[in-house]
Write a structure and sequence with these properties.
By secondary structure, the protein is mainly alpha-helical. It has one domain. Helix content is about 55%, strand content about 10%. The longest helix is centred in the N-terminal third of the chain and has 19 residues.
């Protein structure tokens, strides 16, 4: 199975240098839509319902302290670990979300059930480390 770092590296190779905030959201939507379309995750790592939207802690700690990142900055990950179906899903996400600004991706994720449900009614801006369940992601995006 691929890792979140494989997906992140693939996105960075395709998009070039982007903000770490945007990278997190594009990885999240890649996982979410792949779950919706196939019923299977691309990677095992989880996203948590942080104040600024879905964040994968493992990826966060790999790029912590950076505002933007490019493929060469990410020491982990190899896009060769991704299947054709997985890269197809990521490519659709990049087509549909890849040109959105990071703040727009944040706002979008804040309106959607998986992030909201994981936060369990916490106020906007409140810290949260609750996991966004993969089942919740697959069900929600699969219903759209």
């Amino acid at each position: 199975m691929a890792t979140v770092f494989d997906v992140a590296k693939y996105i960075l190779v395709k998009k070039g240098s982007i903000s770490t905030w945007k990278l997190q959201k594009l990885c999240y939507y890649s996982q979410a839509w792949h779950l919706a379309w196939t019923g299977n995750p691309i990677f095992d790592e989880d996203f948590e319902a942080w104040a600024n939207g879905p964040v994968c802690p493992e990826l966060f700690y790999a790029h912590q302290g950076r505002f933007s990142i490019c493929a060469g900055d990410l020491l982990k990950g190899d896009p060769c670990h991704l299947t054709d179906d997985e890269t197809d899903s990521i490519n659709v996400v990049l087509r549909d979300y890849g040109d959105m600004e990071p703040y727009a991706l944040r706002e979008l994720s804040h309106k959607e059930a998986p992030w909201k449900d994981a936060r369990n009614g916490l106020p906007e801006g409140e810290k949260c480390r609750n996991v966004i369940r993969k089942e919740s992601m697959g069900e929600y995006y699969g219903s759209l």
